[in-house]
Amino acid sequence: MKIGRIGMIMLLCLGYISGIYAQTFDKLWKQVEQAEKKSLPETVIKLTDEIYRKGEMEKNSPQMLKAYMWRMKYRERITPDSFYVSLKGLEEWVKYADKPMDRAILHSLLAGIYADYAARNQWSLRQQTDIVGVVPVDMLNWTANIFVDTIQTHIQKAMSDSVLLLKTSSRTYIPFVELGETSEYYHHDMYHLLASRSIEALLRVQYLDKQKNVKQHISRLYDNMLSAYREKGDKESYVLTSLKFLRWKYESNYSFYPVIDKAAPYVLAEDPYIIDLNKLATDYKTLDICAEVLLAKANLILERQQPLSALKVCEEAIRLYPDYRRINALKNLREEILAPFLSVSTVKTAFPDQEMKIKVSHKNLDGFTIRIYREKKFVSEQHYSVIRPENYQSQDTTFIFKAPGVGKYVMRIVPDVRAKKEIEKEFNVTHFYVLTSELPKEQFEVITLDARTGHPISNAQVTLYSNKDVALQMFTTNEEGKAIFPWKSDYSYLIATKGDDTFMEKKDIRGGFFSSPDMNETTEKVILLTDRSLYRPGQTVYVKGIAYVSELGVAHVLSDREYTVSLQDNNNQEVGKRTLRTNEFGSFTTSFTLPLACLNGDFQLKTPVGNASIRVEEYKRPTFDITFEKQEGDYQLGNKAEIKGKVQSYSGVLLRDLPVKYTIKRSAYSFWQLRMNDQIASGEVTTGADGVFTIPVQLEGDTLYNNGKGNYFSYLIEVTVTNAAGETQTSTKVISAGDTFLYLRTYLMPKTCKDDPIKLNFYASNQGQLADVKVTYRLYRAKDKSMKQLENTPVITGTVASNKEIFLDWKDVPSGPYVLKISAEDSLGRKGSAETSTILYSVHDKRPPILTPDWYFKTNTEFDATHPAVFYFGTSEKDVCVMVDVFSNEALLESKVLHLSDSIARFEFPYQASYGDGIAINIYMVRDGQVYQEIVRLSKRLLDEKLNMKWDVFRDKLRPGQTEEWKLTIKNPQGKGADAEMLATMYDASLDKIWKQRQTFNVFHYRNLPHISWMGDFTSSIWFDYEWDKKLFKVPLFEYDHFVIEPFSSIPAVAGQGVEEFWIRGIASPSQQNRAKFSQKNTRMVLEESVVTPRTSDLKDDLAGNVPAIFQEKGETISPVTDNIRTNLAETAFFYPQLRTNEQGEVSFSFTMPESLTRWNFRGYSHTKDMMLGTLDGEAVTSKEFMLVPNLPRFVRVGDQTSVAASISNMTGKVQSGTVSMILFDPMTDKVISTRKQEFKVEAGVTIGVSFRFTVDDKYSILGCRMVADSGTFSDGEQQLIPVLSNKEHLIETLPMPIGGEETRTFSLDSLFNHHSATATDRKLTIEFTGNPSWYAIQALPSLSLPTNDNAISWANAYYANTLAAYIMNSHPRIKAVFDSWKLQGGTKEAFLSNLQKNQEVKNILLSESPWILEAQTEEQQKERIATLFDLNNILSNNSAALRRLQNLQNGDGTWSWYKGMNGSLYVTTYIMELYARLFMLTGDKPTELALAMQQDAFIYLHKSALEEYKATLEAQKAGMKMTGLSGNMLDYLYLIAISDEKVPDVNKAAYDYFLSRVGGLLPSSSMKIKALAAVVLDKAGRKKEAQEFIASLKEHLTKTDGQGMSFAFNENPFDWGNMKIQTHVDVMEALELIGGNEAIVEEMKLWLLTQKQTQQWKSSVASVDAIYALLMKGINLLDNQGDVRITIANEVLETISPSKTTVPGLGYIKRSFTQKNVVDARTIKVQKRDQGIAWGAAYAEYESPIRDVKQQGGALNVEKRLYVERIVNNVAQLQPVTEKTNLQVGDKVVSRLSIRVDRPMDFVQLKDQHGACFEPVSNISGYRWDDGIGYYVDIKDASINFFFDHLGKGTYVLEYSYYVSREGTYETGLATIQCAYAPEYASHSASMRVVVPSFEK
Question: N or C: which end of the chain has fewer CB within 10 A?
């Protein structure tokens, strides 16, 4: 039997092989071609697979190569992930290929593929630090250097045997190689083909190469090619290769690009590129191929804007090489240079006799004629001659054309040289110029003016029209040309007429506006002040509030008022609330305790009338800082600059003998754009005795940027210092150097009043540093306002010092236009200059100082009873009507007309009480078709009075714990003691290094001023652009031999890679059961880990070479705290919110300083009852002569061998020696655990480090640590708490269990419980299952709501989604029944909760500590509102309102505007029509009368648009244009007709038939939506066979995935706007359903839709309702099944339909937990789905395990963690892998690199990455980040860094962030855990590792 079966298989195989042999390769490739034309990718894959195997059997490499690449390409099109599999296949093939030539080709292919991939992802790759020493297995984790190295390796192997390549003809590799005619010059050798491909690959990755090896490699390849062809004597190939080499050589050199200056023509003879081309042309002038050299030269000269010289080169080449096969390229270039060019523009509307400006751009033309026609009758013509430019460059000229009389005309412009066609445009001539604007009280004003004179046109008829061209109203203007009338929203545009003047164009009535702030003149506000801006969780925030009211610029406090102050966390959730009453000074005070566990970031203090923000972070206070000194002296490129800095502790100690590591990065800028950024130097220096260090910076330029034109360089110096205790800090400084060494600048206002001395400052700087030089200034009078021509002699000169404010007296200088020029020379002889221009004027001028239609300046625009407002308006024109309107907030107060003639009018407005906060004055006039307008806003003058605060007693040097009294005086502006209240607070200044934010302390006066503006006529232009028939010659293309492979368009991009300190949005905290919170009076901390501690008896001192440890007996009580032990380490020294002055304005207060050794910032805020404010700042330092400052870890972990270090500073002036001790004790009992001691000796002025090591065990949950240094004479110490984390981790591992309808599956549980590790304890297994998850989709139905945006698309979407959702709900009575049962259960329990709110106990981060609380609440509310869909009356009422809004937005031509007043849009109209046509098709309902009327109007427009496009298409075809395909607009048009009852009008039938005939050409389209629409169109039109071809193509693009149904895999992560991928999926489902015969596929596509809901929150209402319709309304009714699932594990059985066990009816939801040994030890679980429809669930394994034993676990969601240490090698940062054998050093920068893989799109993914106790995060600031298109939140915790992604598309993401190593020892690094919070069954965790930081002699 067995032998028979084997025989049968062999016969079948032989038959199959014979079948392959029976077909020739050509026949098979023809079948491939046919399948490609029909867009059948699966068929192509099948055929190319046959070709590959046939080639393999016949050892036909070319056929195998072509088939493999074809198959690879098409696999990628369907499933992009197959790219990696195919690439791996090529890597395997090259290993075993036995032909050297095959290997060379395969290496070339691999180099090209890797280069394409790297180039596609180069932005992400450039952000990363290179990994060295290891190559990750997964290419998605590679860095740029690995790609570059891999590409170069493959290229070297491809090119290694040059002799073989030169001998091998590319013809031998047909059909994989397609021959190009140009390769004849290379004799079709494989050497040129592979070398060219190699260069192309390297060019694609040249910017990823930080070592600059790629450029050398390219140069070497060119050198080798040139040498090879030179030795062979192939001159033509040598010339062509030289041309390519020269082009690359100069294009890759930025300094080569010259600056083209028309004033100084570019000297071609000096151009290095042209010099090389000339040499090449001379050396090989006898060869015809040399014409290519001259062609390159001519094109280059043309780029240099010298067409005359280029023409000469063309003519020379044509003369020398007339028979060259591509000589026509030079002839065409000559034709292009000699071709005529004409472009003319002018205004579309003119007034009679207007001198219309005709703007002309022209070349190679002598002139043109303007002909004017009226009603098709010739009126006049005028010829204009132009000067033909001798250099063949285009030239701009302006002519004047006198407009004819009133009328409607056609202008035709006829060039002297006959063009392809004549162009004519309409233009109007009218007297009218119309202004429009809103007025107060919903009035509207129209003013009709004479366009030339600006005088009013009285008795004009103004007709108002709607947007549907219906005349609504007519008004007649008065003697002032004005018509005022009530505003109506229906008014859209107007036309003014008078007598025969009826030719005004339509004018949009909107644009001019009047607005008055809708706000009370009385403004109530609360100022909120806090003790500082940065806090840790659990700390106290002290708050003071000051309530005041501001009215008409006067403020006063609000006493005895009640206010509610709330504290809101980073999720805008309230975490504290106080109700308070103000005192007589309008102030209140309170405090809030911050939550211990929260999402770190911005918190808000809020009152109804005032807010303030604070920052909450889990930071560690720095103890020292690095500052840079001001750069002195002049320097330039090529110099060596010395950058000095200082390292000093916050307690004032200068830190000497510390290593200072630095890097210098140079950024090159060319023409002020960033061109390059690279690291040029690195090194290490040491601080001196004064704490100062000096970094040498060589100000080097770069050869790429040495053209000396507009280039400059910035140098970023970053220094890193690690102190004696292991703390690391960084600081940066930027200096610059460039081509311009001395930079001068000054500024004058465009208008300058000369009556008073003029304030100026002549700024001089050198590379960003202020330079002290003598500046000479010269003031020149300009000849006109253009400032281009100046008088020869300056009117004023002088010399002053730079960078100092000066006052110049120019009152005797005549008014007029002037240019101020300044110049200077520095100490090195470098010169600089600058200029600025202004118009000098005087208030005594009688006429404008320049010729101008309008002249305005102000003297005072802030007025009160004693200071009137004064301003001036004038004109140089004669007989001008100037209109003046004065507005208050309420009304038009005054309107008058002034008559000016070359004069200036003075305006003076005294303040009146009726003006309130102020008035607005609109001054406007019209002259020569232009409106001139000045809007002057006059505001009431504010009192600017401040309190003066001055110290009487203040000491800036204090001792820790010192009691102190300070005193100050507060005086009012009159110098008398102020009756004021004051807030005095002082906080640790080191916090400003982490987060610095000054508090807002000022009075807000709201200025309630009106806004007014007229809308004048918009002067549109008409354009005439001409084309001429060019005598173009056919040119053979340059075609080289090439591989027959198309670009890998589907090469995936690596999402979300990055290298900043953080790269993802998120937070992570441990399980709820394992939280421990620690607090003490002055220290609050919370660590989100399970907590354990150190074994007392086994605490070991691991410090080799130290003084032997002295142990105290176990159980001894620690000695009481003495004065020399500092325990009060508060970060706020004091907060006195309501200090009061005495009669003299004095305030005194006393306080006791905290005991931290640091610098303190004092902030004083004072205010009076009338809200005069004052501030006072101060700095104080707490220090001692002898100080010990410990660097304690944020936490320690059980099992770690850790260390505690401290620095000892000796400022006593003498050598100090003694003993330093560390005592560890139990803070709960004060029992000593262990004492360590060692001796020390510290020189005067020196700081040393000491360190103690011990091993942590699990006896204590928190440790007290006291460190004391005692020299006998001096003593200092500090006592703090250290949390202890367990080395056991509480883990949750998950196993998703999806299952299909009527299916039985057995799932393996082997991977759970850490692969059932023996060390996994406290096990619990939870089984959760949903028998019918279709109900989750029902819960996503959008509830009834009306849009907040008043636009057509929003209203259409609301109508569509609500109507269809209600139809679905009310078509299934069971839905209502199930919902009613859910409500009876309790309304908002399990059924209505958001997925984010469910299953908190099996999530690695609590919802309350995530940034998604608002999203969870929104989804919960949306589910609760679904009941509104059952109220049909409410739906009908609201939908009627939506239809009425749409009717209002529809225009007269049938189009819809997006917003009211916008032009009608074809896109918006088509979109709305598609929605409604689909709605009526899906529901089967008839449209309402109103909807039908709108639809008919819209179809009239769509038919008209289609007809116009049809006619335009025919015209284009007549002109010889080849038309292919079908526009998207016309496909939508055909689709609308197909799915609606619309009949095609007779006039449109030809157009319809034509467009329908083009639909078949859309078959190759890559858009599945287009294919689906086309299939529907063809099917409805009766073209069934063609429709089936589209359906066949759609089916072959679908991919089936186990458990996820069928979908378009290549459509996984398109732009997610509006859920386009779901919409496309539904469109295809509808097409398959409509055409029929595809029921099984439709059901599989339903499965995919449902699984999308499992991991994503559907947000688009239209996409959601369409998807739900597709799920429920066709095929199998998924709601009919009961969700009958039986689950068997061990001896336990769970059933979803059991009433007693089902948690949520309908869903068939069950959830049970087990701790029984037989269940948790089970290795399999059996799931049976006993009815139709899918189901899903998961097993959650909870357990405790030692971190060290935890193995990597993941599946659909996976995370891997790797650590790297950053090293600088040859000035390039590199990441070297960290292993347990790596010896890290304190101060090292370690990078955690997380690789995240997601196999399907997921919303709300949270990642938590623990870190070792020896690591200190580089950044302490949480918040949102955006990187490479991925947004995320990062939350810095003490023991982990947590990240949150709103959405992750399918793919792999790489995340990097950095730490500094802060202490010696051996440490566990912890785990990285990731979970989809929306579907917690998808989770993963990494393994941990151990790192070693050995001690070393310091």
Answer: N
